[in-house]
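Standup notes
- DV: blocked on the single-chain target, sequence here:
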Amino acid sequence: MAAEHAEHALTPTSYISHHLSFMTHPIGNTPFMSVNVDSLVMSVLLGILGCGFMWLVVRGATAAVPGKRQAMVELAVEFVNEQVKSIFHGNISFIAPLALTVFVWVFLMNAMDFLPVDISAYIYEHVFGLEKWRQVPTADINTTFGLSIAVWVLMIFYSIKAKGLGGWFHELTCSPFGGHPVLWIPNFLFNLVEYISKPLSHSLRLYGNMYAGEIIFLLLGLWAATGLAGTFFGALLSTGWAIFHILIVALQAYIFMMLTIVYVAMAHESH
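- DV (later): unblocked, structure below
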């Protein structure tokens, strides 16, 4: 019995690996394709929550003195519109709602990091029967890559729409070094690097910050389990990190939104 208890004893490695394990479901019979159910479900639920909240506030909007919720939404809409207008000088009827959606959605996904890890894990396991469940979708690189690739596809779509397929292909092969046939391959390779680097930097920046924040919360939780002094200092530092993390959560949502605006705006411009 003692050996069995020691085998199942919680260690720092098992504690962290448990909290960083995804609920993965394979796709088909291949071992190379699977979906992280927790990231997908949390992303969809938070997207519905964010869009539903905005819809309810707009539906009940009044021209009289706005309430707190309406005032908050109006400030968010005006802030996003100002950011879009400062970068994109065309019709903002699509890009402004896109930027607002991206900001609200990413902010909500990032904000899941504020929920206490151990309490949430206990609820997921003992209430919902989910032994493995990651609650921060943006700490999953698949989520951030999915978001960045969607923006990348929009960037290519609007580039072709603004310049035409021929104009877009001409830009790929004739800029920035010139249109001489000898320079077509160097131009294409240069633009290829640019096209590949955009979704990489867009996704990895958000993922790296949220994953690092999650690791720090786990390390502070481990410290809190070392004894009375560890509990005190762990709780104190966790509170301080949570307050600082508010800035990171909002800042990363803002940066992701701004890069989305910049990339779509660049698609309408010529080199």
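- Follow-up: Residues 35-267 form one domain.
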